[in-house]
Amino acid sequence: MKSFARRCLVAGIAVAMVQGCSTAPKAPPFTSPVYSDPNQPLDLVDLGVSLLEDEEELAERLGPVQQRPGSLVPEPPQIKIYSLSDLEKTQLDPLMGQLIRDFELAKLNDPIYQSALYEFQAGMISADLSSLAYTPSLSVTNRFLENESSARTTVSVSQPLFNLELLATLEEEDSKRAAAQATMKVREYELVDRVFTAITNLIKAQEKLVVNDARIKALENESKGAKREQELGQGTITDVRDSVVRLEQARAEQIKLGSAKASALRTLEQLTGRTVDPSAYVLRKQARSIDLPPLDTFMSGALQFNSGLLQARANQRLAELSALKSKSAYLPSVSINAARSYSDRGDTSNSGLNFGFSVPVNAGTFYQAQIASAKISQAQLTTAQVRQKLEVDVEQTHADVISGLQELNIRLLAIEAAELSLTATEKSFSGGVRTRLDVLNSVQTLFVVNDQYINSVVELTKSYLTLNNLTSQPVSESVAKLQAFLF
Hints:
The chain is of the alpha+beta class. The protein has helices at 2-21, 52-62, 84-92, 98-109, 111-131, 164-231, 237-272, 295-305, 307-327, 365-430, 436-470, 475-486; strands at 137-145, 150-162, 333-343, 349-358. Helix 6 packs antiparallel against helix 11 and helix 8 runs antiparallel to helix 10 (365-430).
């Protein structure tokens, strides 16, 4: 609606300026045939499959909003530009979950995302520029003419009546808006993926530090016991060496995990611009579940609303319109022109209204059309490749989430069994039934099953976030679900 009103305003101002200089009749108002019937696709040149159905899907996805007359794509949503007051509110809001707070802070602080906002703004301005393609053009010239011995001022307005290149440029507006919106959503999903990757690295490191610290304490006790028994003549040097080897390995692992935790903290602080409290990212060790819709639901949503696919379709549409502009070089263009010319001396003036007709002849036009046709084929193949990859990714990720949920419950049972096994082995060792090596193996097994559980939780949450991103679910909802699932 804004672009339509803007075109009418510019046309009105231009005609009014000419009327101020001349009494020539006004040119009749022009209505673009592209929007005469919104239910009919663009059919000026046969360019293959139309993408208006995709634009209808985008309009349905964005909800009931005010639309430009005849357009199937709604006005774009406003992208929020954050300020310092927003940052202070985000930091101090006690009701906001930790993951949500980190994501909102990253929006404010991450330079890549902030750059994407300007990229989005440039894309929308480019769409606005395309919407002005069929507006009148105003020209004011002043030249000194020797035959009149004075300067002459000419004011002219030209309104295109039929120009296929301008019609194609006008039609690009909706596709450019769709491409800008889809690109912005892709950047948002990339940001939440970076933030969540840093958080999961922190979770993995500090949870494994806790588990490994318990292993070190158990191995220290076993090492002391082995040395004491050897001194009393009841143990062997092999038991001592085995205990020392396991203990030193665990200590080396502790140093490595500490470095990984520090790296994750630095990355998260860089993204959010704040000091991170590691105690806010402690996993709860209990059975978990996710209300997961069937695969068909996710697949349908991905094929309709996936940002990458919408972006590819918009680019395909732009390639088709680019080919249309190249082919327009074969066709004439018609315009109506109003002009008034007067001498600075004020003694001579003239005005008039005429029609312009031009037929361009360019030797390179044929090759430009061939290049444009090749780019259409390239864009169509790119769209097909994006769709195929999307289908495979959705199916695989959905299966990963289902198997991950089943795996978590089994790993919790494995941890419980390993704890009971360690207790039984220690009692059997005290009774002389088991060796110290058996105890060391039980300690290692308990560490391994806890390590595997932590990895499984992290991989499951990553798969779940990826699945939501593939189907273009709202980021805030996905992050809120992950917050409840993890902590």
